Structure prediction request, 137 residues.
Amino acid sequence: MEEYYQDQLFRVEMQKIRKANKLRLQGQNIVIDKSAIATVATARAFELQKGFNGTFRRAYMKYKDMLEELKDSGLIECYIFMLLTADYDTICKRNKTRNHILEGIWLDEETIANQREVLEKMSRDIVGSISRNKEIS
Prediction:
């Protein structure tokens, strides 16, 4: 089931990126909230918290495949990437308002730390290598 949701999330992200590239080529400035790396970070959190072995690697490879597909199509994921972060208390407060079925996972400090670690590493090492990226706390 987790793999199915990953596939759907990557499909949606790819649609957003393709549309953004089309609008960018028409001279429009586009802002996309969220990123495909959030799916990878979530997979890492689920793998550690729920024991979904292999979901992180699978999501990471799907992300790399997505980047290759974009490159082969002459498209970019982003020109500028901003990772907005918040402290643990702020994240918990926000997550509590979402009434999520997996609420316990999204309130666990270790889960949030693992997700942040992946987001920071990927934004620095992958996205940051192909865009002008910024991290804002």
User: Anything to note?
Assistant: Residues 131-137 have pLDDT under 50 and may be disordered. Helices lie at 2-25, 36-50, 55-72, 88-96, 109-130. The radius of gyration is 15 Å.
